[in-house]
Amino acid sequence: MKKMLVFVVLTVCMFAINAAAFAAFNVNAFEASLEECVKFHNVLANTDSAGMSGDSARAGLAGAEKKLLAQVMGLSDVRDFSKARKIAAAWVKRGGAEADAFIKAGNKALKLISDREKALSDLPTFNAAAFASLIEEAAKHIDVLENTDSKGMGGDAARAGLDRADKNLRAAVSAISSIRDISRARKVAEVFVKRGGNEAVALTKAGNIALKYVEARKKHIALYKD
User: Fold this and answer.
1) In terms of pLDDT, which residue wins out, 200 or 51?
2) Most buried residue, 39, 59, 104, 121, by most Cβ within 10 Å?
3) How many Cβ atoms sit within 10 Å of the Cβ of residue 221?
């Protein structure tokens, strides 16, 4: 298992340093949402607030801001945060006849960006090396069970150890709060699944246990956006 641990730690470090690129920030979609916000702010500025057109404009603005929020909620990379903030700030500084509408739309975007950034900063950081250690612990007990009389004391101890390792894996995955960290966790688990050698069965089983929990967590995050 020592050789396996060295391989896993090195591979995990490689993934941590060279994380795969995620969906890039869509500048055009972000600006289109801002443009839509401006349009409805302009309508509201020139419409009787009690009239039907005012109600429609307010509904339209709510929809536009929802689209804007969807774009901001996709931010997770420092560079993309910087891009989005620069765009929003540029809209705030725009002049002309629609200056007030631009300021309102830009400031709304800046507020959403700040809220998103704060929410991400409050999330626990995914520790790839620690996660790998938990999978390795599960693999160790699986390896014992693969080579021990299932009714023997060694088997009983290994099953108890595997139960603890499984519980710790589930707890670690449950703490993941972002799709980016879900991707990192999946890559760590896949290292174990693809590892060969004498311990291949135990590693594959442990990796698949982790993958099962990671996929379930991904579905939960996508459903509840937590």
Assistant:
1) 200
2) 104
3) 16
Distances 84 to 20, 28, 37, 75, 116 between C-alpha atoms, Å: 21, 11, 16, 9, 12
209's CB contacts (< 8 A; 6+ apart) are 135, 138, 166, 169
**What 3-state DSSP class applies to 198?**
coil
| Tens digits of residue pLDDT in 109-167 | 999 999 888 877 766 677 888 888 889 899 888 888 877 544 554 678 888 889 998 88
Handedness of CA 223, 224, 225, 226 (dihedral sign): negative
Distance CA 111, CA 68 (A): 11
Give the per-residue pLDDT at 173: 86
Residue 225 has pLDDT above 80, yes or no: no
Residue found by looking up tokens 């005012």 in the block: 54
**DSSP code at position 21:** P
pLDDT at 11: 43
State the first-to-last Cα distance of the chain, in angstroms, to the nearest integer.
36
Got the DSSP string for 30-53?
HHHHHHHHHHHHHHHHTS-TTSHH
Residue at token pair 């520790």? 127
Average pLDDT for 174-195: 83
